[in-house]
Specification:
121 residues, alpha+beta, 5 strands, 26% helix, binds guanosine-5'-monophosphate
Length: 121
């Protein structure tokens, strides 16, 4: 994927609109366009890494910052106490569709078990 095809870089550059809930020099957070829970936010590093493992190997501090940002957003959304789920999808079987690492923050209701999705056909 070239950077010009990278949806998240285009959102960071304000070429594509998004509901931005947090931004600093290194990280941006946006509401997911197809929310899977009452709160569904994507925490995205501005620098592109393909997945969480690539990010962790290159910049573990940034990975930690993403978790801290997610918790701050959970507090803003009023779901830090009731609970939330943080999730990285990696590659096809996990359903990763955008190969610029992003941390899903989900909450606002009982989220159920981890493997509730349909069996892959
Ligand atoms: P993945 O499946 O790669 O882990 O997650 C990609 C996420 O990006 C999906 O939850 C999807 O709904 C979200 N998404 C895809 N296109 C857009 C968009 O244009 N704007 C926003 N805000 N989210 C998007």
């Amino acid at each position: 994927m070239s950077d010009s095809d990278n949806l998240f870089l285009r959102i960071i550059d304000r070429e594509i609109p998004a509901d931005i809930v947090f931004e600093n020099e290194r990280v941006i957070a946006i509401r997911d366009i197809n929310p899977q829970a009452p709160t569904h936010v994507l925490v995205i590093p501005k620098k592109r890494y393909r997945n969480a493992a690539e990010l962790a190997a290159a910049d573990a501090q940034l990975l930690g910052e993403m978790v801290t940002v997610a918790h701050q957003i959970a507090e803003q959304e009023g779901i830090a106490e009731s609970g939330y789920r943080l999730l990285f999808n990696t590659n096809q079987d996990a359903g990763q569709t955008i190969f610029h690492v992003h941390l899903h923050l989900l909450g606002g209701e009982w989220l159920g078990g981890l493997t509730g999705g349909p069996i892959k056909g």
